[in-house]
Amino acid sequence: MIWHLIAAAFAGLGAAGIGLLLRFASGKRLPRWIIPVFAGLGMLGYQIHYEYTWIDHKQSQLPATSQVVETEQGQAYWRPWTFFFPMTIAFTVVDTASMAVYQSDEHQLVEFILYRFEKDYVDRLSHQAYLMNCTSAEMAPWPVNLANRAFHSCAPSTGSLDSIRQSATPDPGGPAFTMPAMHPARLFLTP
C-alpha cells in the first residue's frame, strides 16, 4: 500500500510539472492554480488506473494453471464514474492443478479449492475446499484434510451431496467463506 501512495505522489508531481510547463509556455497567462489542479488530476488519474487494472495485476501473479470462474463488480458513490463503468472488486479462482478427481460408483467427484480475492485497502484472500458431483452438478463446501486426502471412505455412494452438506462442519480455524453464487457448470473441470 505504501508503494501506491508513493506512486500517486509521483504521478501528482509529474502532472504538476506538466501544468508548470504549460504555464511557462503560455507566457504565464495561465493562472497559478493550474499547477495544483494538474497535480490533483494526476493523482486521481493514477488511482483510477490502479483500480481498473487491479484484476489484471492480480491475475498476472497467479500460476498458469489457475482459472477465473467468477468476477464481482461494484460501484461506490464517492467514485461516480463507477456507475457508468463498474470496476471489479472481487474475483474467484480455481487452481486446476490441485484438483483431485475420484470415481464413486457411476458418479464422478472432484475435489478443488476456490480462492477469493477481494480488493480493499489491504487485499484480502480467502479459500475454501469444495466437493463437486459432476454427474448431478451439485457442489458443497468440503472440510477436508488436504495432507492425507482421507475422504475416499467418506464419499457417498448415492451420488447426492445432501449427506455431505449435513455432515460437513466448517473448519473453526479456517477463514470465513461464503459459497459463490454461480452454477457448478461454470467450473471448467478437466483433470
What does this structure look like?
- With 191 residues, the protein is of the alpha+beta class.
- It folds into 2 domains: 2-61, no CATH class; 80-186, no CATH class.
- Helix content is 30%, strand content 26%.
- It is built from 3 helices and 6 strands.
- The chain has helices spanning 2-25, 34-60, 162-167; strands spanning 66-74, 87-95, 100-104, 107-118, 124-133, 138-141.
- Strands 1, 2, 3, 4, 5 and 6 form a 6-stranded antiparallel beta sheet that branches.
- Strand 3 (100-104) and strand 4 form a beta hairpin.
- The chain is rod-shaped and about 85 Å long.
- The two termini are 37 Å apart.
Task: Record keyword descriptors for this entry.
alpha+beta, 3 helices, 30% helix, rod-shaped
In short:
The chain has 191 residues and is α+β, with helices and mostly antiparallel strands. The protein contains three helices and six strands; from the N terminus they run ααββββββα.
